[in-house]
Automatic annotation (TrEMBL):
Residues 175-281 form the TonB-dependent receptor plug domain. GO terms for biological process: siderophore transmembrane transport. GO terms for molecular function: siderophore uptake transmembrane transporter activity. PANTHER family: HEMOGLOBIN AND HEMOGLOBIN-HAPTOGLOBIN-BINDING PROTEIN 1-RELATED, TONB-DEPENDENT OUTER MEMBRANE RECEPTOR. Its main location: membrane. It is found in: Cell outer membrane. It comes from Aestuariibaculum sediminum. Belongs to the TonB-dependent receptor family. This is TonB-dependent receptor. Gene3D superfamilies: Carboxypeptidase-like, regulatory domain (2.60.40.1120), TonB-dependent receptor, beta-barrel domain (2.40.170.20), TonB-dependent receptor, plug domain (2.170.130.10). It is a multi-pass membrane protein. GO terms for cellular component: cell outer membrane. Pfam families: CarbopepD_reg_2, Plug.
Length: 1057
């Protein structure tokens, strides 16, 4: 900003036009007509004000984004509180504005509006003037003229209403963004009652798929995909960047109360992160302090967790019928004489506890700002009779920003967490699996003692065993940042940070044999040991894993305006290094289970095992970016990153990852004159993303340690043997991304819509040679993976938001929809020949299974005798009739076809609604998956299994009771009938809150108080529920592993003071 011989009032106007700051002052106290000259670029507002009022008696105070100007004199703090004025502040659409500032003009006497936009202020007299301001709106002065109740409407200041979006290594105004970026405010994540932050994102970002494969407390890390699969090698997870530091920690153990925003980079915008960007990038920004008095916020919530969509297994009577027993045998089980066992009811608790507490503090002065937090999460175990398992987590964070001089700023961030996790000796999933392998005819207990099940397994083994698996995880991260405004070069700044993260984990696994019981013919109790369930003898393993990562980043930023031409650019260098060490000790036998310590274990050297390893890795990166716009109308951005990784040979370590994007803000053109459209933008991007998560040392030959070779009949000599051969030219997987987007803002910005079309082509995927060299040659199994594969992913996504009000009722509706479909281009397939060409995966979606196509069932002898009706093997009545795909007259594995669907949904949707009315607020988050199918063939009835009731009710019994599936123990194939539609719609979060009026809270020293009730995973609507096999999202194809999902009901309180 360069201003020559202009008035102070003109300086104010200029600052207000290019920032969110507003000046509040009395005209007779400040000489705003005085002429000044200023030449300032990229400086803090404090520096500008000091220069502006250096030789005057003007005093300034920063109140958030309000700048209060007064004369340098002692102000009267105590006022004659003889008049009380109250009212409400609204926008130009009549929507209340919570957090608006109301000041008595010429004083520091003021308040902020509450959640409903209302305020109450004691002032000095009945004829004073109120100064009313709110970010994004024009400041307004209101003469009260003795009025005690006011309704104040503020006018939007469009130039100041711009949302700022976090991008890779910087930020941009939303209108200047030319790539596919989605951003969520932290306030939206706090209202999801889940212990993992990643799960909170479900349904809130278009194209983002979040699933939780395991729901065990402390072991419930979700899987996140950005716009579907990016590779077929399994390395599809997005890169997590926290406050600019990549790989600092995972997303899931962060405290949502610390989060300012979460940003997802989905296209060429991610290329600035180079070789780790192929799966997309998630940027997490934590909260920082602002100028003002200390503010404390305390939140607490207690939840009750219970399983949902639990499979309904058959009862004992139904299973006996399926096994062919007579009605006489079944009758005692029907009338209650004999009791069957509901194994899931025996294993899963109806309710377990969960709680979360958080305390934050923030504030600051002109020189130092701070944000600090403490967090605690506790989750109880979910197995009946288990009082030892669970998860406890402790978080802390401190972000401090200090202004050391007019040009130099120092930031010091420290964060840490401890996770204290106790898991049962066998996982929750393994235990529940046993409920599917144990017949309901068997009692759970005999004479009060647990029984054994199929092959000595017991569904009670986990809860009743003394064993457990304990882990203590400590993570500590520290970041120091320096920002320096370089003198004499307008717009040039230097930024650097250093980060160190230490992650250490101590684990102790104590496994003991499980004892089960039975009765002999005389009713005497017999004790048995469950062989290998989980172990044959007591076993103890202790392990310690420690890693330390160092990240150093330095960059020069340059920002300059040349009239209507605006340039923002940077160049940077980053170095990353990781060291880790692992050590483990194990004893495989104990004389007693009383002392689970290593020293108490066996001294037999054959039953003592020790292990250890160490690892180092590093990356060296150079990158830069330039952004240009002309009058905010024509937008352009280019970035390039050069990455070097030790994962590859010296000749292949360097990779280049460019990204380019452009945008056109059509609504700023003079020719554009559509009254109801305020914002219309076209944008497009192209880039190359990288994936180096492919395993290390593929470029070297692999040698394995052999246990020993026998020479001369008795001499055993250890040695090495050659394994995989080297692939010295191994390099990065590359993902070319293309995106075309449209943005619409309509009806006074009440409605906003984004539409994106995208296509990805991933090449150089590491796969093995299948066609050019086969195992028959004798060397195929020793060949390393090479950069041969190619894969495509394409689709589109829509997001729309609408906000409005009806009187005091305010509401916001946001919906998103995405459709993604992939295709395997090349995987070096062998020649299938004429009879199996339909099984080629090239040209088909990746990960879709092979299955038979059902054309009917054999329901009569005539069907069996019909030569045109074919089945698998020796067919019986009730069996499936399969399609002869290759027309060879027999049904075998060559007749399987590739399904069009797998367990990754092609369509994901979200609907998020928030509303408020007179202190009440309501939030509803809904998400849905569609075009997803899962196989249920393992749930078809077997005589020794605890089979789903649905299948026993639909078995083929005879021609009079043909059912809908084959007879007992038959038809358990992956086919077009056993593949079920697993689409669903779920009410993910529903929260109702009430903010107690401030006039009551102020009397007890609180700024605000809110009570709420929250439900998580409340309702699921799905055709899959008809089969009662479990939750459609958590269900795993072709497995007895019922993965439980849980709903949570939470009651909580938020306090501000």
């Amino acid at each position: 900003m360069k201003l020559d011989n202009v008035t102070i009032e003109q300086v104010f106007n200029k600052i207000e036009s290019i920032s969110e700051f507003r000046f509040l002052y009395e005209t007779d106290a400040i000489d705003v007509k005085k002429n000044v000259s200023l030449e300032i670029k990229n400086k803090k507002i404090d520096f500008v004000l000091e220069e502006l009022f250096r030789d005057s008696n003007v005093k300034y105070d920063l109140l958030d984004r309000q700048i209060l100007l007064t004369q340098r004199q002692v102000m009267q703090n105590k006022i004659n509180q003889s008049f009380n004025v109250s009212g409400i502040v609204l926008d130009n659409n009549g929507i209340p504005l919570p957090g608006a500032t109301i000041l008595e003009k010429g004083t520091q006497n003021g308040v902020q509006t509450d959640f409903d936009g209302k305020f109450n202020l004691k002032v000095s007299s009945s004829d004073i003037i109120l100064v009313v301001s709110f970010v994004g709106f024009k400041t307004q002065e209101v003469e009260i003229n003795g009025q005690m109740n006011l309704s104040i409407s503020l006018e939007e200041d469009t130039a100041k209403l711009e949302e700022v979006v976090i991008t890779g290594y910087g930020s941009q105004k939303r209108t200047n963004v030319t790539t596919a970026i989605s951003q969520i405010k932290g306030d939206n994540l706090v209202k999801v009652a889940t212990p993992t932050l990643g799960t909170s994102l479900t349904g809130q970002v278009p194209g983002l798929l979040v699933t939780t494969p395991i729901s065990e407390p402390g072991n419930d890390t979700p899987t996140i995909l950005v716009r579907g699969l990016s590779t077929i090698t399994g390395a599809n997870a997005p890169l997590i960047v926290i406050d600019g530091v990549a790989n600092a920690d995972g997303i899931n153990r962060l405290d949502p109360n610390d989060i300012e925003s979460v940003t997802v980079l989905k296209d060429a915008s991610a290329a600035i992160y180079g070789a780790q960007s192929a799966g997309g990038v998630i940027l997490i920004t934590t909260k920082r302090g602002e100028i003002g008095k200390p503010k404390f916020n305390f939140s607490t919530g207690y939840g009750f967790v219970s399983p949902i969509s639990v499979p309904k297994y058959s009862n004992a009577a139904l299973q006996l019928k399926g096994l062919g027993f007579s009605e006489e045998v079944i009758e005692p089980w029907l009338d209650g004489t004999n009791k069957g066992t509901d194994w899931l009811d025996e294993v899963l608790k109806n309710t377990s506890g969960q709680q979360r507490h958080s305390l934050t503090a923030s504030g600051g002065s002109e020189t130092v700002n701070y944000f600090a937090s403490l967090g605690y999460v506790s989750q109880e175990g979910q197995v009946t009779g288990d009082n030892q398992s669970g998860n406890k987590q402790y978080n802390f964070r401190s972000n401090i920003d200090a202004k050391l001089s007019d040009r130099l700023k120092l930031s010091f961030d420290v964060s840490g967490r401890r996770q204290d996790r106790v898991l049962l000796a066998r996982s929750l999933q393994d235990n529940i699996r046993n409920t599917g392998l144990t017949t309901p005819l068997q009692p759970a207990y005999v004479q009060g003692m647990p029984t054994g099940g199929r092959v000595n397994q017991s569904a009670l083994i986990v809860a009743k065993s003394e064993g457990n698996r304990k882990d203590i995880v400590d993570v500590l991260g520290t970041t120091i940042r320096l920002d320096y405004d370089i003198p004499k070069i307008d717009g040039l700044t230097f930024k650097m940070f250093g980060n160190i993260v230490t992650n250490q984990q101590y684990g102790k696994d104590w496994l003991v044999p499980f004892i089960y019981y039975d009765e002999d013919a005389n009713g005497n109790l017999i004790e048995y040991e469950a062989i290998g369930r989980p172990v044959n003898r007591p076993q103890l393993t202790e392990r310690f894993d420690r890693s330390t990562s160092l990240t150093y980043n330095a960059r020069f930023n340059y920002s300059k305006n040349f009239g209507l031409h605006n340039i923002d650019a940077f160049i940077a260098y980053e170095q990353y290094k990781l060291k880790s060490n692992f050590i483990q000790a194990q004893r495989l036998d104990f004389d007693s289970t009383a002392v689970p310590e290593l020293f108490a274990g066996t001294t037999d050297p054959n039953l003592i095992r020790n292990n250890g390893s160490s690892n180092e890795s590093a990356r060296q990166n150079y990158f830069g970016q330039i952004s240009y716009d002309y009058d905010g109308k024509y937008l352009f951005q280019f970035h390039l990153r050069r990455d070097a990784s030790e994962r590859f040979s010296e000749n292949e370590r360097v990779g280049y990852f460019p990204g380019i994007s452009a945008g056109w803000l059509i609504s700023k053109e003079e020719f554009f004159n559509v009254s109801f459209i305020e914002h219309l933008k076209l944008r497009s991007s192209w880039g190359i993303l990288g994936n180096d998560a492919i395993g290390r040392f593929n470029y070297l030959s692999l040698y394995e340690f052999a246990p020993g070779y026998v020479f001369d009949g008795s001499l055993v000599v250890g040695g090495n043997r050659e394994g995989l051969l080297a692939a010295p030219n191994t390099t990065w997987e590359k993902k070319e991304t293309r995106n075309l987007g449209f943005e619409f803002g309509m009806f006074d910005r009440k409605l906003f819509l984004e539409l994106d079309f995208f296509k990805y082509i991933t090449s150089d995927i590491l796969i093995s040679r299948n066609a050019t060299v086969t195992d028959v040659s004798g060397i195929g199994s020793q060949l390393p993976n090479e950069n041969l594969g190619e894969f495509e992913n394409k689709g589109f996504e829509i997001q729309t938001t609408y906000r409005n009000n009806i009187g005091d009722f305010n509401y916001n509706i946001s919906a998103n929809f995405s459709r993604t479909k992939n295709e395997t281009i090349f995987i070096d397939e062998p020649d299938f020949g004429e009879s199996r060409i339909h099984q080629s995966r090239e040209g088909r979606p990746w990960g879709t299974p092979l299955m038979y196509v059902v054309e009917g069932r054999f329901l009569s002898q005539a069907d069996i005798d019909d030569p045109n009706k074919l089945g698998l093997g020796n067919v019986q009545l009730g069996d499936w009739i399969y399609r002869d795909i290759n027309n060879d007259g027999i049904i075998n594995v060559d007749d399987r076809v590739i399904s069009d669907y797998n367990e990754i949904p092609q369509i994901i949707m979200g609907l998020n609604i928030s509303a408020s009315y007179k202190g009440f607020d309501l939030t509803v988050n809904t998400h849905a998956n569609a075009k997803v199918k899962k196989f249920t063939h393992f749930y078809i009835a077997g005589e020794i299994n605890n089979t789903a009731e649905y299948y026993f009710k639909n078995l083929y019994y005879n021609e009079a009771e043909p059912g809908t599936i084959p007879a007992l123990n038959r038809g358990r194939d992956m086919n077009s009938v056993t593949q079920k539609d697993a689409s669903f719609v779920r009410i993910k979060t529903l929260e109702l809150g009430y903010t107690i009026p401030n006039k009551y809270m102020n009397k007890i020293g609180l700024d605000n108080a809110r009570i709420y009730a929250n439900g998580y995973n409340l309702f699921t609507f799905s055709k899959f529920n008809d089969y009662q096999l479990g939750d459609p999202e958590a269900f795993v194809s072709g497995s007895f592993h019922y993965q439980p999902s849980f709903k949570t009901i939470t009651i909580g309180l938020n306090l501000g003071f």
